[in-house]
Amino acid sequence: MQDWGSVNAATTKRTAGAFVRRAVLVGLMATGAFALSGCQTMMSPRAPTSAQGEMAEPVHKLMASASQRAFAKLEQPDGFWSSSVARINLPVLFAKTRGRTSPLRSPEFREKLQHLLNNLAEEGARKGGPLVIDSAKSVPVPNGTAILRGRPTAATTLLRQSVGPALVNAMIPAILEEMQANQDPTLGKAMASLSGVTMTDAAHALAIEADNAVWYEIGAAETEIRSNPASTNDAGLISALSTR
Question: When comparing pLDDT for 52 and 171, which is higher?
């Protein structure tokens, strides 16, 4: 995570944010293997098809609720920037500075640019949100019981595997258009100091970072829902998560 402000407060918040973000990432990675194992079990002739079908609905509800909650947060002003798990680091592309006088050598300028890029990513989230939420309602669920009884981000892992690169591809043109229309001179100064980098390159790099950030936020939302199912006001989902 990047510097959050004053030394003591910054260190505390940065450490906490990094811990939460790392925990979500570990959950997403670990659940991948868990979900695969669940798929293999599900395909066994002994697996009861009717039970699997019954448990697919609450998994879809969990995915949709987590996605809706995450995008509602990220699409707000400073949505990415204010998130403890989804704040986007400055893409590596912006490390390609040219000359000792490049503004990118200034920590203050880099932080200002990072904040701007986080705000530009909001448009990408608005474009990609419907795609993810629609997928959440229809993604094949090979073993709903395994997902509900799995790790805190098991449903997010399955959803991300299903969406694949579609979210990045949806965000790139939206972010590029937002970059081209942006009037803040910070981005222009940064681009002028880079060697052989186009605005399209920058949009692509930001979209990749935003993709990771979105899934961190969805994973965090799923974890919250699992710990407090009643917050969804969905009787079916509450029951499924309470009896898993």
Answer: 171
